[in-house]
Batch of 2 targets.
Target 1
Amino acid sequence: MLSFHRETFIVFEESRVQILAILNEKKAEYILNESSSYRPIKIMIKQLSEDTDPQDIVEDLSSRGYVVNRISQMRNYKLKMLLPMFLLEIKKTGNCKNIYNERNICYFRTKIETYRRKTKAMICYNCSGFYHAARNCHLKPKCIKCGGEHATRDCKIKGKLPVPKMRKLR
């Protein structure tokens, strides 16, 4: 197990910020691999009403000292309906590990579980590459639908294609 003194961590963080600034200044292409200490905790909140406003959940958890980075309600795409489950990213600060002990959110008795992601390969929605997320990708965008130099979400083709245009792996 690695241990860092506070001074070492501060130097490491300053170096990391400087390196990222240089890469951005030079408009270099790179993929950022976040340290596990920077990655948020992903949780699933179950047994809420599907009509619950996500902002109410954020306000309730914020009042208890949690910092919510992102929240999204799960949906069944085949039936086109919202599910009574919410995916949250909680910032690793203070009492973040206590989130699993919370039993009531927005006056509902809830169940909180660690998010289990699918075992399929992750695809970047920016460059269409594999095994990294768009928020950490600073490569040139590449559309998986038409092969153009834009992110797939910005493509003029809105429907699903039977055979998308794939690109060579980098």
Note: The chain has two domains: 36-114, 119-169.
Target 2
Amino acid sequence: MINTLDHEFLSCSSGSYFFITLSNPAEYLMVDPRSFIKPDTYSRIQITPFVKKIDSRLKWHSPEARKCYLHNERKLSIFQQYTEMNCNYECVLNETLTICGCVSFNMAYLVATSVKICGLAKKSCMVKAQQASYLPEMQIICKCLPTCSVVEYEITYTSQYDDWSYMKSTNIVKNNARGATIEFVFHKPYFTAYISTSIVDLNSLISNIGGLISLCLGLNLINLFEILYIMIKMVSNYIVHMFDKI
């Protein structure tokens, strides 16, 4: 439950709202997904988790082969924990600092105090640096692969009007306050887990190679018997032909 005085609402052109956003605490805070909650409403936020993992046999492959990083396999210079989003954001920050010689105001707390903050005159430069950081050649340099174990969430919002006067009668909120009720629930009592595995593992590869070698050897043995049969047939025909002349 959230409540506030009228003058403490987030003011928008169409009215006053509560502003909420959901994000991974290990990642750089992004405003998406976000929602504007109207006062005097009941909102239910349904969360659907998706778990992605890799087969244990893929851990011995290189990150380039498995297309992901294991836990603590990749370190970042700014963020303590590696995620694909943190890596991309750090790539944008480094590219902005290299091209423009400064960083945007929302990146200021991530760098040293001696680093300059870009003003409006550097806006076009910052946009150019951000676009350049997502080019294929920069992605090769940044190497921002996803993590091999990922938990993602799908968010669904549903809202309906609530009787806020009931909340006032419980003395939980002040009489001059307005507010909203927000409930976080899981959409389903279970979640879907995706496991990445190799189409052809080492055992299958050895079996396929052995099968091909066996097939080739089998064909060679058959050909050998066919050659011997033909030679014997030719010799026998020659002997019979010689006796016929006698």
Note: The helical segments are 63-66, 84-100, 123-133, 136-142, 164-169, 202-245.
